[in-house]
Specification:
Layout lengths: L1 E2 L8 E5 L3 E3 L3 E9 L9 E7 L5 E3 L2 E6 L6 E7 L2 E10 L8 E10 L13 E2 L2
Length: 126
């Protein structure tokens, strides 16, 4: 997914999965890039679980290390067992200066205990 920041500050784009039943906890990992042409212009990337009725629950985000691919980072979120839609929500910063990219989304077994990490909110480029 590529979100090109040609709109206004705060514009959002969502990528939402089909309703999925998770029989056991899972780990969703993905690569992301919050591209900013100048420091302080970045957008944000959030990940939510949506109930069957589309009620959003923010996920605890684990921002991984930078990959060797030009500033891309590997991130992950813990998904508890249950039935959900998974939603990526990209919010742009400064127009034409805060593109957001997501790639290589993978679902695997549980990646960490969610109670051992403080919630960090959004992925924000630093």
């Amino acid at each position: 997914m590529a979100v090109v920041s040609a709109g206004r500050i705060g514009d959002q784009v969502a990528l939402t999965s089909q309703l999925q039943q998770f029989q056991q906890p899972a780990c969703l990992t993905f690569d992301f890039l919050l591209d900013e042409s100048k420091p302080g212009n970045s957008g944000t990337l959030s990940v939510y679980l949506l109930s069957k009725h589309r009620f959003p629950t923010p996920l605890r985000l684990n921002q991984g290390t930078t990959t060797s691919n030009g500033g891309w980072k590997r991130g992950s979120v813990y998904i508890p067992s249950g039935t959900y839609h998974v939603m990526f929500l990209a919010t742009i910063g400064q127009p034409y200066r805060s593109d957001i990219y997501i790639d290589n989304v993978e679902l695997g077994s549980a990646c960490y205990d969610p109670h051992s990490i403080d919630p960090t909110g959004n992925f924000i480029s630093k």
